[in-house]
Hints:
InterPro entries: ATAP, ATAP_core_dom, FeS_cluster_insertion_CS, HesB-like_dom_sf. It comes from Halonotius aquaticus. GO terms for molecular function: 2 iron, 2 sulfur cluster binding; 4 iron, 4 sulfur cluster binding; iron ion binding. The chain has helices at 18-30, 80-86, and strands at residues 2-3, 15-16, 39-46, 52-59, 67-71, 74-78, 90-95, 100-105, 111-112, 118-120. By secondary structure, the chain is α+β, with helices and mostly antiparallel strands. It has one domain: HesB-like domain (Hypothetical Protein Aq_1857, Chain: A, Sandwich), CATH 2.60.300.12. A seven-stranded mixed beta sheet has the order 1-5-6-3-4-10-9. A hairpin with a 5-residue loop joins strand 3 and strand 4. The longest helix has 13 residues, at 18-30.
Amino acid sequence: MSTSTADGSPEEAVEVTEQAAEKALALMQGEGMDTDVGGLRLFVQQGGCAGLSYGMRFDDEPEDDDTITVHHGLRVFVDPSSLNYIGGSSLQYEDGLQAEGFHVENPNVVSECGCGESFRT
């Protein structure tokens, strides 16, 4: 696993559990994406009752200013603005009776809305 930017400088980045990486890679491969170049973009956007919310999507390639990390074969792209809010977080995948899906454990959060979909730092 690498936790550095594309130019090799260290960054406080996002961690990804093995289960989350495996699920994301399977989804990417199911869409015919090249996992050697493309990756999972994790970002923060305005919205939700607490003010900010997480977003995720697959991108074919990173942007020039992205922090790029590799976790269990999954490339993760985070833009500089989002990294300010989610640096040090962990992306997990839950697969249980009550919930299934990706979840961000963010140590920077000071409060979340009742449903857990939005947050404040």
